[in-house]
Specification:
heterodimer, A: 284 residues, 12 helices, B: 252 residues, Rossmann fold, 2 domains, six-stranded mixed β-sheet, four-stranded antiparallel β-sheet, 8 helices
Chain lengths: 284, 252
């Protein structure tokens, strides 16, 4: 259960990677740090030791702040380098990660903090199996989030437009899709996804400025799932989340951190397009 | 009535003048061809009209109104559609989905009604499906509805791109080298369809084409560009009578 919950968080961060990649063809290497920052913002809003706002008010407020931070990054930084090579955007996102880690450390310190949610420390006993309510909450919310995003992308005008952008920006703009505007919207969405991942991460464990580095594991999850696929991102996250505790138990805790990358290498050797491939082969 | 009018258009890339003081006017329901050697600036003219490039001076009018301030994505809503020299399709989508995406830009439903698939949304979907099916029938794409572009031969992919442009229900269609890479029989079909698009759908067509047989067969009027300059305009049958045109194509 704990592995599934961790996998959900990896999956949500991976989802952020995929969203940005689909809309802009760029990879936001700060996605993990956006999650970490989102976690701190929620802790700052909700915990008694900080602002102590009611939990149900703090969540939407925190997500709005994350959406604004993400949108500002797009507006103030990325739009200024539009048209530059992808490597420029990659380096800028890596720099943004460093900056977020620095500010998180300066504002909230380097000691681990946890989110005080109404369900933290509560357990559910099912036929002798004791399950953490926080972990169940993480799983349920992630599944709901993924289903919502799936419906959004499959059935709404904006979702269809984003799918079109992910496949061909030039063609999309010529069939009347406002590419630039929707790319900005995707940054807003990615900020909300990162904030949500942050809430889930902070409610099931402790957060410090360095936890943003799980973004690298989430990136591996996105590649394992088949980069570009939303369900694939979640699946990749779950694979990593489940394999980690098992490898810690049977191989050794130190090795468990290697497992995501070993799985990544295996997938790249055996199924280079990932578990849910976005690349379709052509019959000749 | 003039559908499209370019007035003293200049487009520069650094020191290179890609379009040099170009003025053209295309009448309603006309098939107007733009020809010239490679690098003459033909595609730059298309990119300027479709607002992919900002022109340095001059004006571009559609039905008497300037479209200089519009963005590329806004052109579809004023009735301009385009095909590309290198095919630009949504490769992970089926032929049908490629065509329906074009219709979606006209959708005026909101997020909630789309999620709940309310009657208004359902009616619009039916209306779009109707538009797309008419285009599929016109261009004989019936067997390929559920195929992806990568499963189709090159010539058919060009037809799918044309079908997607028609699904936008344009008044003006810009076709950038539709005949390139096509076999002789496919070019004959193309000429037939270009005429059909004008006759059946009443669409004005601006065409870039290298194959002068296709140009002669379909065009009402031809303009020849060389180094970004307009060097000749006239009827297609007079094309080879002009020394300047012959010089531009094959040298002195």
């Amino acid at each position: 259960m704990s592995g599934l919950a961790s996998g959900c968080v990896y999956g949500l961060v991976a989802l952020g990677f995929v969203l940005i990649y689909k809309a802009t063809e760029a990879i936001n290497f700060a996605q993990g740090d956006f999650m970490m920052f989102g976690a701190f913002i929620i802790i700052w809003l909700a915990n008694e030791s900080f602002l102590g706002l009611p939990f149900l008010f703090a969540i939407p407020f925190g997500l709005v702040i994350m959406a604004l931070i993400s949108a500002s990054f797009d507006k103030l930084v990325l739009q200024r380098v539009a048209g530059e090579p992808q490597i420029v955007i990659v380096i800028l996102t890596i720099a943004a990660g460093f900056i977020l880690r620095f500010f998180a450390g300066v504002i909230w310190g380097y000691e681990p903090l946890s989110l005080e949610t109404p369900i933290v420390g509560k357990y559910l006993s099912l036929g002798g199996v004791v399950l953490s309510l926080a972990e169940i909450g993480v799983i349920v919310l992630t599944v709901m989030f993924t289903i919502t995003l799936y419906i959004f992308f499959s059935f709404t005008k904006m979702g269809v437009a984003l799918m079109a952008i992910s496949q061909n920006q030039l063609a999309a703009s010529h069939v009347g899709i406002p590419v630039r505007k929707l790319q900005s919207f995707t940054w807003v969405l990615a900020g909300i996804v990162a904030g949500s991942a942050g809430i889930l991460y902070a409610s099931k464990g402790a957060v410090d400025p360095s936890v943003g580095l799980i973004g690298i594991k989430a990136f591996a999850a996105a590649v394992i799932g088949g980069f570009g696929s939303l369900p694939g991102a979640l699946l990749g996250g779950l694979v990593i989340g489940i394999v980690e505790p098992f490898s810690a138990r049977f191989i050794g805790s130190g090795y468990s951190h290697l497992m995501p990358y070993i799985i990544l290498l295996l997938i790249l050797f055996l199924k280079p397009n990932g578990l849910i491939s976005q690349v379709r082969s052509k019959k000749v | 009535m003039k559908t499209l009018e370019l007035r003293d258009v200049n487009l520069k890339f650094g020191g290179l003048l890609a379009i040099d003081n170009l003025s053209l006017s295309i009448e309603e329901n006309q098939i107007f061809s733009l020809v010239g050697p490679n690098g003459a600036g033909k595609t730059s003219v298309f990119n300027a009209i479709s607002r992919f490039y900002d022109i340095n001076s001059g004006d571009i009018n559609l039905y008497g109104r300037s479209i200089k301030q519009l963005k590329t994505h806004e052109l579809a809503s004023v009735g301009v559609a385009r095909t590309f020299q290198n095919i630009e399709l949504f490769n992970n989508a089926t032929v049908l989905e490629n065509l329906l995406v074009a219709c979606h830009s006209r959708k005026n439903t909101n997020f909630l009604s789309e999620l709940l698939f309310l009657r208004k949304v359902r009616n619009q979907e039916l209306e779009y499906r109707d538009v797309v099916e008419k285009v599929i029938d016109l261009l004989e794409l019936q067997p390929y509805r559920y195929k992806r572009p990568s499963e189709l031969p090159y010539g058919l992919r060009k037809v799918v791109e044309l079908a997607r442009a028609l699904s936008l229900k344009p008044n003006l269609l810009l076709m950038d080298e539709p005949g390139s890479g096509l076999a002789v029989e496919e070019k004959q079909d193309l000429a037939f369809w270009i005429n059909d698009i004008r006759e059946v759908l009443g669409i004005t067509i601006l065409l870039i084409e290298h194959d002068l047989n296709v140009v002669r067969e379909v065009s009402d009027k031809v303009a020849v560009l060389s180094s970004g300059k307009l060097i000749w305009t006239g009827k297609p049958c007079d094309l080879e009578k002009s020394n300047r045109v012959v010089e531009a194509f094959i040298g002195e």
